[in-house]
Design a protein that fits this description.
By secondary structure, this protein is mostly helical. It contains five helices and no strands. It is globular, with a radius of gyration of 15 Å.
Amino acid sequence: MLPITNHHGVTMEMKQNRRGNGLAYIFAYLLTWLSGLIVFITVGQNDKRAKFHALQAIFLGVVLFIIGWIPIVGWIIELLGWLYGLYIGYQAYEGKDVEMPVIGTYARQYSK
């Protein structure tokens, strides 16, 4: 039997998983590396998807920290990167995994 999906391609199983660990995906990107580390240690040990998003948030946080040292332009990029991370967390909450260029590749590799 094929899984039942809505018009966004989200299955009922994804919605049920969202209820369990859904907020962990958004929380992982909230404080980037710090909250990503918390999610990695707690939820990420039992959930590969949460582990991927936790690692991606940690890597994003490190990159944004380095870019943030550049005056003005770096601060703007840092803010936009943080907002992009929250967007990715929300997409994960909705059941869609967004993989960031370069960072996502490493996160996927180390979350296996």
